[in-house]
Amino acid sequence: MSKTITSTELQKNIREAIDWTRTRREPIVIETYGKPMAAILSYDEYEAYWQYKQARAARFAHLRQLAAVNAAVNELTEAEAIALADAVRQELFDEQHSPNE
Hints:
Largest sheet: 3 strands, mixed
Helix content: 55-70%
Strand order of the largest sheet: 1-2-3
Order of helices and strands: EHHEEHH
Number of domains: 2
């Protein structure tokens, strides 16, 4: 579970916040006027996030290629191919974020 602190607390205790995140490997959410504005992550979590983002971008690039092939095979317009790729993207998103899993 993440810890939440105010931006003022962060200014006063930056070293402790960094140490807390690094040693516990849990994020700290920074709030300003009661609203989340930023988060501090351990470097390992940051690296995992970027790896996820790169893998996700590669999957979407592959989907776009498949949509282009499908368009050529099925003689779809570019707009139809993009709509198809968007639908597949949404299905993948829904599967990954399904509350049943």
